[in-house]
Amino acid sequence: MISQFYILSSRGDVIIRKDYLGDVPRTSSETFFRNAKFWKEGDGEAPPVFNVDGVTYLHIKEGGVQLVATTRTNLSPSFVLEFLRRICTIVKDYCGFLSEDAIRKNVVLIYELLDEVVDYGFPQSTATEALKQFVVNEPIVVPPAFYQAKPLFSLSKGPTGVFKSVLETSRTDGKRRDEIFVDVVERITCTFNASGFIASAQVDGAVQIKSYLAGNPPIKIKLNDDLLIGKRDTPYGLDRAAERGHMVVLDDCNFHEVANLENFDVDRTISLVPPDGEFALMNYRTTHGFKPPFRLHATVDADPNSEYKALLTLRLWCEIPAEKASSGLEVEVPTPRWVQRVHCDLDGAGGGAAQNWDFNEKTHLLRWRFKRCPGGSEFTLRARLTLEKPYVPSLRSEVGPVNLRFTIPMYSASRIMLKYLQILKKADKNYNPYRWVRYVTASNSYTFRT
Amino acid sequence: MSDGKYFSTTKRGEIHEFKEELRSLDRPKKKDAVKKVIAAMTVGKDVSMLFPDVVNCMQTDDLELKKLVYLYLINYAKTQPDLAIMAVNTFVKDSQDPNPLIRALAVRTMGCIRVDKITEYLCDPLQRCLKDDDPYVRKTAAICVAKLYDINPELVEDRGFLDMLREMLSDANPMVVANALAALQEIQELAGSGGKDLLQMTSQTLNKLLAALNECTEWGQVFILDSLAAYDTRDPRDAEKIAERVLPRLQHVNSAVVLSAVKVILRCMDVVALGPGGGEETIKTWSKKMAPPLVTLLAAEPEVQYVALRNINLIVQRRPAILANEVKVFFCKYNDPLYVKMEKLEIMIRLASDKNIDQVLLELKEYAQEVDVDFVRKSVRAIGRCAVALEKATERCINVLLELIQTKVSYVVQEAIIVIKDIFRRYPNQYESIIAALCDNLDSLDEPEAKSSMVWIIGEYADRIDNADELLEAFLETFPEETAMVQLQLLTATVKLFLKKPTESAQKMISAVLSCATTETDNPDLRDRAYIYWRLLSTDPEAAKDVVLAEKPVIADDSSTLDPSLLEQLVSRYLATVAAVYHRPPETFVSRQRMAVTLGVAEEANHFTNAPYSSRQEEDGATPGTMVSDNNAAAAAGAAAAAAASSVGDLLDLSDASPVPVPAAAAAGISPAALSQLPVLLANPGGVSVQGRLVRQGGQVVYQLALRNDTLAPVDGLMIQTNRNSFGLSPASQVLVLSTPGGSAIPPGGLAPVRVPLLVDPAKVTPPPLSTALQVALRTNQVGVLYFNDTVPLSALTEEGGTMEAPDFLAAWKVRTHGIRGELPQAQLGSITRL
């Protein structure tokens, strides 16, 4: 099992250290840091599992810290990696936020948690809820120091922007309020070929719940009635229905263990007793019938006036419904090394959307940014490229592939919906905690080839 | 206290403050102090001197304070075992506390104190807790049995704890079942393969485990699934029963559960295949159910993806049908980390078929134009590998490669030429029409591998390329500056050209190359090969044709293909484990052994010197701590063989060898017992006898000598010198420094160990033939000069730096053999020395 566990800061200092089996030397944290930082094979990152001198190191990175486990045995690596992730979640649930600062301020609490979570290298109970009864320390909630506009792109999975320890509910403190957040988070992976058709597309989604309900009342969630799961069980005709938008078809999905799926096949309801803290009630994946939120068309032409110039035109369509908007959009165009300078003209037919561009002469990246990009709008960027050598037609294939990054709030690409969220607490009629249901769709890998 | 305390810590004031606060009667203050101590402990400060003070806080009914003290105890009990015993009474008392939390805490903490003495006190509380009413206590006690086993296995067996664990598998609480199972698995592993089957899996236990599977935590599910996978059944009905219960686990959120479930189902498939009709239908149904969850794993975080991909790589080799239609999901995303992209490429190559090759090639072509050089190279290689694997698609692959060559990006062109060489070797005489396109890019070649590939192509098709002689001539201009790899290829290619087109210019070239390779090079491989060609050509040109132009065997794509038995082992036994990620059997990297129980304070020192670490490696003997042990041995053997075969040049690098740390014991000298075991070099009863051996220590060749003085007078004025020898070994200092107390003289009847570091002195190298003989002269003031002969063991000369990872070794081996296999086996031997 796990021999050691530690949390390292970005500089390699040990913030938390637990030694379980005593068969790996204490200096392993330095060995790890050295190897992970200067990974031998090229300048790529170290793989999450690697072996140095008979010790296997498994590690993940989150919130600016690294969580590492060491072992000398042949255990299941995904077991350990999932477990490290779970520790992150527990820390987030109890300390409100995961960062070096938050960990340092809560060292004793985290040790206390770890003692319950791991015994002799064996993961024990890791449910935030179950851990509550063993915890006597109070959290010191440290909200992130610089939490500003940035997180749109770094959107991690899960309800963002809530920094609150699970220990703060009305049960412990009358002033705290009870609330539950249900987020439908979707990430789009989409590749368009040079002619603008979809080469591959997939939506990975999750229904994330973060619950701060005192007394853990049961809740009930209903999803779309027209939801179909598993293309393997689906007659082929239904695919077309999905294409036309009549059905939401999921290729595969899985559920958290608390989910009671008794009625799921009948009326698409899930009942559960939400444990405290953050968890994914359901993960799903679909490749069917979703409409790509953005389309883009790129052309490269010779400049009739100068052979050392070329014209790059990008046309972008935002195809989400007009009442929605992407908050933040970034178009990234790699250009070949022999492009020296770029000058762009922006022209927004969609009207007045704040947009700007920049060109990095070192990385040869052209960036086109929008603060907000409303649905149904269309934009054009005309760039004049100054070249080192005369224009050749092959320039066209050397520009790109164009990558898009965006976050669209209150929009689900798969059209999965929460029809209702019911809190089933019979005893107390006055109990009416806040319920937050949010949707967000973000790009995972959204690429236009040229 | 001595004055030393003033130097022991600069934070004396702080420690003192802690002490005061710990003794405070005010509870919050006390609590605060313990917290501070723990914080100091975490950042690595040594607060072990506070042990007695902290233990004094232990007897309290404040749970928070108690937990803090326990936390401290676990950390320092190892280094303060005697003091830890003082806490035992409180432990025993706590283990009977009415509060189950405290009972469990006590048992848990006691087990973590790895002190032999504590086991006597641990047994009774443990026995009680295993039967506790509270499941929380029982599950903690179950793990504690594994802890105790690590300290004292006999005790665990004598007290019948193993039977109790097995009983606990029927516990009503799934958490207890999971922990009992985990403890049994752990003990089984510690006992090693020699141990009995502790689990004693019967159909009854099987049913219990299957029943617990649904109720368990996800971690417990993994333990159960792993033991199900280890359950050896031959009965297809059993297998179906297991699979039926395990299939729903594929829907689990936790990727570890999914992968372990996949492992169980693959096992069941093997068993079902033995049944009537080969279970084809069943296997098909299960395969269909396995694909979507496997694909879903790729939506997880990159770390989990990586592990999943490494496992999927094995699965698609063993059961290609499962994911045959899913090649698209393995296409790379632009924001995937490099390690994920590389794994996806591997799987794309494996899943490439005549059906989907167009799609795959389109992707690979895109990747070959990305920014990351390593990824681009690997993508170009992948195109070549598809061509080698799929005959029907070869032409399409070649077209893509040619398009890529048109981009004129240097590393793309070079990589493409390397793989085109492989394609020529797979399909000889089919695609030479493209050579012209390759020849347009000769100027951009600057990497040895690409250059030698191009030279090989020119030599191989010398008769089809009109200006082959001109092309080769251009390469030959820089012959002396090329790397050995290119030189060897140039030599062979020139010979081929000469044999195929014996024109005047070819003749001029061959004589220039041969004379250069035989007289102006210090690379023995090149020289030997040139001599052989020279001999062949001068004795019988026809025979030379038969040898050099002989038909070469067709290659297959076997880079990164695993040995079938290893694959079988990895898939059926080690899927979802670290072994499946490394693609190596666990023996090569698992280095866990039962830890010796610390009986003293030695552990403290261990932390700093790593002593337990190195001593464990020594116990292992041949099993060193690196995961590449086998390969190490192989590489070392290869290097030794190569050295014996020819290579003097490499041995001369000895003095550059980087120092390698050696076990302290060896560096400090040798024990008297070891001295007498050294081979006798000069037996001289009544005079001075010499025993000794050449060894390698710390990256240096060292002569370990033992001089015995059997005369009646002290012997002094000792000096040593070696005669000229093949390796140019010569003492660093001629004057011998004795490490005996007698200083520079050996007393009568005394035995003096001497350590003589040897250096390589180029002036003392004898010309070939190679010999391992070493003549040594020893001068003394009393008995004159003594001469003796010794042989140089090659192990003393080979450098330690030969470690390399197995895939690198294989890759390097392949690269070498590609160009020259079937032509000159000796050159392959020689090439290993550089690895």
Give an overview in words.
The complex is a heterodimer of chains A (450) and B (835). Chain A is mainly beta and 450 residues long. Chain A folds into three domains: 4-132, Beta-Lactamase (2-Layer Sandwich); 179-290 and 411-448, Mu homology domain, subdomain B (Immunoglobulin-like, Sandwich); 294-407, Mu homology domain, subdomain B (Immunoglobulin-like). Chain A is 14% helix and 42% strand. Chain A has eight helices and 25 strands. Chain A has helices at 28-37, 77-95, 100-105, 107-117, 128-131, 237-243, 264-267, 395-398; strands spanning 4-8, 14-19, 49-52, 55-62, 65-71, 118-119, 122-123, 179-192, 198-212, 219-223, 227-229, 248-250, 252-255, 269-272, 277-286, 294-303, 306-318, 325-334, 339-348, 355-360, 365-374, 378-387, 402-409, 418-423, 434-448. In chain A, the strands form six sheets. In chain A, strands 13-15-9-8-25-23-18-21-20 form a nine-stranded mixed sheet, covered by helices on one side. In chain A, strands 2-1-5-4-3 form a five-stranded antiparallel sheet, sandwiched between helices. In chain A, strands 16-17-22-19 form a four-stranded antiparallel sheet, with no helix packed on it. The longest helix of chain A has 19 residues, at 77-95. In chain A, 45% of the residues are buried. Chain B is of the alpha+beta class. Among the domains of chain B are: 1-79, no CATH class; 92-191, Leucine-rich Repeat Variant (Alpha Horseshoe); 672-799, Immunoglobulin-like (Sandwich), CATH 2.60.40. Chain B is 56% helix and 7% strand. Chain B has a five-stranded antiparallel sheet. A three-stranded antiparallel sheet of chain B has the order 4-7-8, with no helix packed on it. In chain B, helix 14 (203-213) packs antiparallel against helix 15, helix 15 (218-230) runs parallel beside helix 17 (255-274) and helix 22 runs antiparallel to helix 23. The longest helix of chain B has 20 residues, at 255-274. The two termini of chain B are 58 Å apart.
